[in-house]
Please model this.
Amino acid sequence: MVAPDFNVACVGAGYFAQFHHAAWQEVDGARLVAIADPDPDAVGPAGVARHPDLDALLGSHAVDILDIASPPDTHAALIEQALESGVSRIICQKPFCDTLATARRVTARAVETGADLIVHENFRFQPWYRALKDIIATGRLGRIFQFRFALRPGDGRGPDAYLDRQPYFRAMERFLVHETAVHFLDVFTFLFGPPDHVYADLRRLNPHIAGEDAGLIICGYVGGARAVFDGNRLVDHAAANPRLTMGEAHLEAEHACIRLDGFGRLLQRDTGSADWQEILPATADQRFGGGCVEALCRHAVMAWRDGNSPENAAGDYLRILALEEAAYHSAAAGRRVDIAGWQEG
Model:
């Protein structure tokens, strides 16, 4: 048997980190050799070495790829520690660091050391968005007018909201945009390019949490197109698993409209027609986001194996964090915000 190309280590063994562990065990050309987490009761994969912290892990293993899946307030210190230890390929979960300023600092440090630092922004790797990107690229839809995603996971109601999976959500003063809508700001940019301006109206519907859990974000483009995030974590949508797609989407274009339903299915209705035709069947992959975590990990390994840089390089992802900041500023100021200057500001 040919030895794997890359030894992978993960920091974090919480709820979402387990998706990372499972993904790495499925990716050809990679071998999960160790994980680090200070919680002795945190669940990790059988047969993989466990360490209490990154220092102990790096002292025991040669690591080709470090995957950071720990809380955002730990990201900067872990990235800087890994860079100082000579790790040359780092993947960091989102939210990427706790602030835009911190993200800029660690990104600059990675550039200085020559390391590849990418963000584990996995929603763009969901199969329906990859398919939609390919359809848009053909040009057969004509001019794009509007894309709207309605986030409706239905998991944010009542005094026990989020306690079963990620209880730290409850204390986040910046929640809906920083933790969730940032996925879709990245999807919008992936599908349509960087927006020109943003307007946001944010609110908190559940009094038992600290941050906003509903809101509207409108991203505008120079040519007149709009990408709209319409989020409400208290409401669900028609799906066997509301967390598969997290909601429904509708694309309106010159020659056709395309819908994404809660089963991961894309349907198209041509202009002038009353019939919807299935162009991507419902996904049989019931893993998180249709297997998007593994898809991202596989993409990164293939890119690095071929001597290329993966998508979601930290330097590029800073513009997504700038969009996030612009959205919060828009909501606070009650006005549209032009994006120019936010990336550098």
